[in-house]
Amino acid sequence: QTGYVAFDSGYANTGSCISNITYLDGERGVLSYRGYDIAELAENCTFVEVAYLLDHGSLPTRDELNEFSQMLNDFAMIHEDMIRFFDSYPPKSPPMAILSSMVNSLCSFYPEMTENPLENIDRMSARLVSKVRTIAAFSYKKSLGHPVVYPRHDLSYCANFLNMMFDSPVRPYEINHKVVAALNKLLILHGDHEQNCSTSTVRMVGSARVNLYASVSAGISALWGPLHGGANQAVMEMLESIHESGGDYRQYVERAKDPKDPFRLAGFGHRVYKTYDPRCRIIKQACDEVLEDLKFSDPLLDLAKELEEVALKDDYFVERNLYPNVDFYSGIIYRAIGIPTSMFTVMFALGRLPGWIAHWKEMWDDPAWRISRPRQVYVGPLSRPFVPIDQR
Ligand code: SDX
């Protein structure tokens, strides 16, 4: 009953937004970015190529990729005054709270990017894609009380992130190209997903002509929720809890089915997919490959597979078309790479960033753009006579 009413621009009166960025078929489990199937992109591209595709509408030529990569390299540092912000956060500050506020602060350090965005849009996008990676890694180092590791000009986007996360003066980080490849694949699979909660938030906020940084900051806050991007962290916490209590996942399945119990099976179900999430299929396969490559065995992977098998045969889940989604297995790979559970949703934001930027730009490029202003169905009382306080 509530939702979008007819808008001139961007919103059809079908209650949906008009876009040419991502195609999603929830019945057939199809997902493509700018017409390219997600499986092909995940198999053949780097995350930087796909970020370029989402933002520019076509895969880059080698020269375009080199130019974009050079911009990402040039923008990799953050202002030294911003690094001092980290010292003011309490040690256990939620990484998503830090990320959202640091991204919003970019408006203060780069006002020229926000005053005339259409002139600076490519630089602004590259600046954001590069700096969010640095902010994420710096926040992790600061949470450990360790010195930050600066980005390097000789490393690729993902290798630089891993090096900033795990290198240290006393233990140099050895770049493993299979880990880099796995991270590229994970970030690609999170790149965009049409009008999900956080992307709709970026569009909603941006529709008031709010600059890109502040719009993305709002999207980061929306992604934080355990029903959305926070689910990858919730999946790992659920699997760890099952493992620590002896591995009896059936009680969790039964709890998830109990209408009186607010517990939901984290990483299961989706508003749009009523079949297997195509991203989950790719990530599940990558789990086996990465753990094999790293000689890392994780009992939680076996547990997740057993849990999936039981749920997919259970009438409750079958009747409601509940399948594992993108968040169900992604944490297994992040954990094998060494990324802490508290950073899993930050990783989701890192991947989703090019999609948020693409949607914000699509709106700004729309000549018929109007502010998003959904209406409602009012069900409250209409006219009530005023009663002075002493007579209430
Ligand atoms: C993401 O939108 C996107 O595209 C999001 C995303 C992206 O890339 O941006 O794909 C990323 O957010 C994936 C989803 C991550 N969240 C979780 O895994 C949290 C657990 N999932 C659920 O909370 C739920 O499935 C949602 C939030 C994902 C979807 O919510 P819906 O579509 O509103 O589902 P619903 O509440 O209408 O469910 C329909 C029925 C209900 O039962 P009945 O009232 O019909 O008896 O299915 C049940 C729900 O109780 N149900 C679940 C369940 N998910 C739905 N029951 C148990 N466990 C679950 N996980």
From TrEMBL:
It catalyses: oxaloacetate + acetyl-CoA + H2O = citrate + CoA + H(+). InterPro entries: Citrate_synth-like_lrg_a-sub (IPR016142), Citrate_synth-like_sm_a-sub (IPR016143), Citrate_synthase (IPR002020), Citrate_synthase_AS (IPR019810), Citrate_synthase_bac-typ (IPR024176), Citrate_synthase_sf (IPR036969), Citrate_synthase_typ-I (IPR010953). This is Citrate synthase. One of its GO terms (biological process) is tricarboxylic acid cycle. The keyword Oxidoreductase does not apply. The keyword tRNA processing does not apply. One of its GO terms (cellular component) is cytoplasm.
